[in-house]
Each structure stands twice: as structure tokens, then as C-alpha cells.
Design goal:
Layout lengths: L2 H6 L4 H26 L4 H4 L2 H19 E6 L1 H10 L4 E4 L2 H6 L9 E4 L1 H9 L5 E2 L2 H13 L3 E7 L6 E8 L5 H8 L12 E5 L9 H5 L5 E4 L2 E4 L7 H5 L5 E5 L14
Helix pairs in contact: 2-7, 2-9, 5-8
Length: 264
């Protein structure tokens, strides 16, 4: 194992220090500036192509590539992940929503785990409280029922697999999602979780409920059937489909017989 991997691994002293620094000093300013440039009071400046290119090259692309990025995950695999946790868990207010106050979705949805729980409880002892797996499952279930999607954030995504927070996200308030959509996946890349939505064409009614539910614009209706392009793997389309014609398939368990996608 390389020195970089040892430094950034879960539980290392370096990881503990950098996560605390992120929580206490870096996260909120980054979210505030990013939101204001993309959707807030500075959006006129942020709409300029030159400003977006500079911000992407200097800030968002390096952060998402080497600092912190998100892995979208369907609800059921996330529930299994939470059930498997044997570590500290805490919850506090969503950092995005407290930054811009422009979203009416539930606030206490920031589920920090492992060293993340240690860092955020140390940084904000009055805002974060310890919870158990059952309460974490309740939170993600309520968010899922509200049409929100889930992402697990990784610290140092290019060198380690340190998962430190489960975020319950929405299209109107999640700043990393907004950066991924407004600047493009190249400039705020997400981590692939290997999940893909696959449609049983025989059962698909082509109503388009899944296209309306997809936060990434990855689904459309063609010739009366729903098709998928460049799926991010959030799984919201599964819950939206009235015929239950969609399932999430992992890359290790693909069934080409039901796969129908447009060329990427």
C-alpha cells in the first residue's frame, strides 16, 4: 500500500484532521459560493462562460476528483449499507440547505458515519447528535417517500474508499448535484456505484412517470417505451413506475435481456 493510501485510509490521523478541517472551515464557504454562482445572488456572474470555466478548472474539478465526491445509490442498497454499519452514526442539518435557505425539504438529513461522525460532532456539537441504525433507516425512508435521492460522499475519492456521510438530496437544494448539472459531469464528476436502471419493455406502459422522476435527465420515452441513457443509478425511477417495470441492476449482475438504452 502506498504512502498516499495509508494517509487517506479510514481512521488515519491525516483523514481525521482533514475531515475536521472540511467540516469546520471549508464546507460551508464552498457550498455558499457555489450555490450563489449557480443559482443564487451571483448567478448573473456565474452564467458567464469564462467564469464557469475558471471556477471549474480552479475549484470544482480538483475538489470532486481529489477532495470529495458523491456516489449516487438506490434506496434498497443504501438501506442494506446502513444495516451493515458497525460504527458511530450521527445526524445534523443538511449543510446545503442551511447554507442557502432556499429549499423546503427536511433539514435534519445529514447522516455522518465513521470518522465523519467524529469530525462533525466535534466541529458542531450542538447541531449533530448520535443516532442508531434504526433512526438512520427512518430518515432515509422518509426522504425516499418524499421523492428525494441518496448519495454517499467519499473523502479523497481518487486514493481511498473513505465513506463519511449519507446525503439525502433534492434537485432544488443539493449543491453538488447543481454543480454536476450546471457545470457538467466532467467539471464535478460523481463516483459510479455500478447501478443502472433497466426496463422490462414488455411491461412498460410508456407513461413517462420515470422520466419526470429522474433527477439526472437520464430517461426518456421513445416509440412508446421508456429508455435509459447514461444512468447515474439513483433509483428514483423504480419507485415512480406504475407498472413496476424497472429494476436496478448492478454491473456484477446484468441481464442483457431486459436492457434497453440509447447510444451514449
Amino acid at each position: 500500500m502506498s504512502l498516499i493510501h495509508r494517509l487517506t485510509n479510514e481512521g488515519s490521523g491525516f483523514q481525521r484532521r482533514t475531515l475536521y478541517l472540511l467540516a469546520r472551515r471549508l464546507e460551508l464557504p464552498f457550498l455558499r459560493v457555489s450555490y450563489n454562482l449557480m443559482r443564487g445572488k451571483w448567478r448573473g456572474i456565474g452564467a458567464r462562460r469564462s467564469v464557469r470555466a475558471l471556477y471549474a478548472a480552479a475549484v470544482t474539478r480538483p475538489i470532486a476528483t481529489h477532495g470529495d465526491s458523491a456516489r449516487p445509490i438506490p434506496f434498497e442498497p443504501l438501506a442494506d449499507f446502513i444495516r451493515s454499519l458497525d460504527c458511530s452514526i450521527a445526524v445534523g442539518p443538511c449543510r446545503c440547505r442551511i447554507t442557502h435557505r432556499s429549499c423546503n425539504h427536511p433539514l435534519e438529513t445529514d447522516i455522518v458515519i465513521r470518522t465523519g461522525a467524529e469530525a462533525w460532532r466535534r466541529a458542531f456539537p450542538k447541531e449533530y447528535r448520535a443516532i442508531d441504525r434504526e433512526e438512520a433507516l427512518r430518515i432515509i425512508s422518509e426522504c425516499h417517500a418524499a421523492g428525494m435521492f441518496h448519495m454517499i460522499f467519499h473523502h479523497f475519492p481518487s486514493t481511498s474508499s473513505c465513506e463519511y456521510v449519507v446525503c439525502n438530496c433534492c434537485t432544488c437544494g443539493c449543491v453538488p448535484y447543481i454543480l454536476n448539472r450546471d457545470l457538467g459531469p466532467r467539471n464535478f464528476p460523481f463516483i459510479s456505484g455500478g447501478w443502472t436502471a433497466e426496463t422490462n419493455l414488455a411491461a412498460c406502459g410508456g407513461h413517462g412517470d420515470c422520466t419526470a422522476a429522474c433527477p439526472f435527465g437520464a430517461r426518456s420515452v421513445s416509440d412508446g417505451k421508456a429508455v435509459t441513457r447514461a444512468c447515474f443509478g439513483c433509483g428514483l425511477c423504480v419507485a415512480a413506475c406504475p407498472e413496476k417495470a424497472i429494476r436496478m441492476v448492478h454491473s456484477h449482475d446484468e441481464n442483457p435481456a431486459v436492457k434497453h438504452s440509447l447510444p451514449q
